Amino acid sequence: MGRRLCVIGLDCVTPQLLFGPWLAEMRNVRRLMEGGIHGHLVSTIPPITVPAWMSMMTSQDPGMLGIYGFRNRASREYEDVYIVNGKHVKARPLWQHLGRRGLSSIVLGVPLTYPPTPLRGVMASCFLTPGKDVTWTFPATLGAKLDEWAGGDFILDTPDFRTLDKRQILDQIYRMTRGRFQAYRALLAREPWDFAIMVEMGPDRIHHAFWRYSDPTHPLYERGNEFEDVIHRYYLDMDEEIGRTIDALPADASVIVVSDHGAKAMHGAFCINEWLIQEGLLALKPGVATPARLTPGMIDFDHTQVWSDGGYYARIFLNVEGREPRGQIPAAGVDALKRDLAIRLEATTDAHGQPLGTRVFLPEEAYRESHGTPPDLIVYLGDLGWRSASTVGAGIHLFENDTGPDDANHAQEGIFIWHGRGKPARETAGNVSIYDVAPSILDFYGIPVAPEMIGRVL
Question: How many CB atoms sit inside 10 A of residue 201's CB?
Fold first, then answer.
């Protein structure tokens, strides 16, 4: 048997929790750290599950992939928006490189693997799978086995993490996490594999649902609440699942534990389109009823220069002559408007007039290439401390999320641990780029790094 590598992907696990005070209680994470390298992982711009995991698996940035989040513009038409899935990934992920060298892979739940694709090995698709009435595994017969190994129901994702029924969502998260780890261990024991990866969405869901209850810096935190220890307990239970998994591996297997981004308190929502209206850059059609979440059909594009899409970060779109159907900005004025917008956005303030600390990125500077229809500006409101809300007519600052209860935003840094990678015990890898993971795994197997990969070998 050749070299074997097992990857445990934990969506949204954040270094201030995993590497912080709780680490003393997490014996299995500690033993992995003590036998290899570890550090903070610097995620994609923006640090979003889609496309971050696929950027990790291809070593290509979101612009190269042409995937800028869950929702993407398919063209310059105002309402031509699609929800991304695996069919939109044109780059070759890691397991395809390995398969060409005769190596077998187990791929379980990696975001942007729905619909599943044939490979040398087995695959179960991700949380974007619409349900189990579609083909969600390769081979198709694998699904029934995963349900059995998961205790009766392999949960693709929690149905609604933005809910006020906290006990119900907590139960769903635990059942999903335990079932996924059980199924992963069953696959590791039963399938031939050289490379194996699973991604568990539970940490992301528990952060979004419970961050306010455990973080004293969150504006809605109440000391002594009944859910104060929920995230802490989950991290300890996750450590036990990690321990059971590594104990089931061959003694010579190498192990990576990695997240795609981190998490932080969401201090509020900044209504970016309301701000654009007040700045004189966006106009609504007459008679539009507000407050409401903005849709393109509400916008008077004949009198609009700029509009935005909401989310964990803001995507800013310019209405450019000759590019958009009813463009208003002369092409010669685009660069100047971008610079002016960046200055104005970085000067935004909170409800008390204090600077938010907003950061603005240009796709042409953030990415090697920009395929598809990228936003014109990428904006981290309050450096990701504030969500971008699309709502208009309700003021600029909201203190509840406009898409349902949500306590956390994504943070730029996740975690990276590689047990068995050739460095002395306890030596830190420092900051690891998300783009370094795939090239380093190819190097682990003695395979030359693909020329399209932009990361370095650790």
Answer: 25
Position 128 scores a pLDDT of: 96
65 and 197 housed in the same domain: yes
Whether the model clears a pTM of 0.90, i.e. scores above it, the answer is: yes
How buried is 245 (Cβ within 10 angstroms: 0-12 exposed, 13-18 middle, 19+ buried)?
A: buried
Structure tokens at 267: 């201090």
| Domain encompassing residue 288 | 268-405
10-residue block means of pLDDT along the chain (458 residues)?
92 97 97 94 98 98 97 96 96 98 98 98 97 97 98 93 83 97 98 98 96 93 95 98 97 96 95 97 96 96 95 96 98 97 98 96 97 97 95 91 78 97 62 97 97 96
Question: What is the distance between the alpha carbons of residues 359 and 378, in angstroms, rounded to a whole number?
Answer: 8
Query: CB neighbours (10 Å) of residue 394?
Result: 16
**Residue 125: partners with Cβ closer than 8 Å, 6 or more residues away:** 86, 109, 113, 114, 115, 116, 136, 137, 156
**What stretch of H or E contains 338?**
helix 334-346
8 Å CB contact between 91 and 452: yes
Does 34 map to a domain?
yes
Helix (H, G, I), strand (E, B) or coil at 311: strand
Q: Please, which residues have CB within 8 angstroms of residue 359's CB and are 6 or more apart in sequence?
A: 346, 379, 380, 383
Q: What pLDDT score was predicted for residue 2?
A: 82
Our CA angle for 436, 342, 275, nearest 5°, is 115
Based on the structure, what is the number of domains in the chain?
2
- Asked whether residue 111 falls in the same domain as residue 136, the answer is yes
How many whole angstroms separate alpha carbon 381 and alpha carbon 387? 7
Q: Decide if 186 is inside a domain.
A: yes
Q: What is the DSSP string of 378-402?
A: EEEGGGGTEEEE-EESS-SEESS-B
